[in-house]
Design brief:
It is a single chain. This protein has a single domain, classed as 2-Layer Sandwich (Transcription Regulator spoIIAA), CATH 3.30.750. The protein is 60% helix and 11% strand. The chain is built from 5 helices and 2 strands. The radius of gyration is 13 Å and the shape is globular.
Length: 88
């Protein structure tokens, strides 16, 4: 996070996970979901919704197959922002 690369890493990980899930589905592999950890920085910057929507659109993955994992510390840093992000 100190290098400022966390936003790019977040985007890359989410995109790779969604692409892989699409590939598994195309190959006939049935999985319930793929889980992606969300950095507290992405969560705090209120960019989560836009990033998730863009990745889902680009990859064609059904949102039902993506689970986002958020740390307690990310939620506790600003609970109001956290609620706003989760309701989107």
């Amino acid at each position: 996070e100190r290098t400022g690369l966390i936003a790019e890493i977040d985007a890359w990980v989410m995109r790779q996970a969604c692409q892989q899930m699409c590939q598994w589905h195309a190959a006939g592999v049935v999985l319930s979901f793929v889980a992606v950890n969300v950095s507290s920085r992405l969560f705090a910057r209120r960019e989560l919704y836009q990033q998730v929507a863009q990745v889902l659109h680009d990859t064609g993955l059904d949102p039902a197959y993506l689970e986002l994992e958020v740390t307690e510390s990310a939620v506790m840093e600003d609970p109001e922002v956290a609620l706003e992000q989760m309701h989107r």
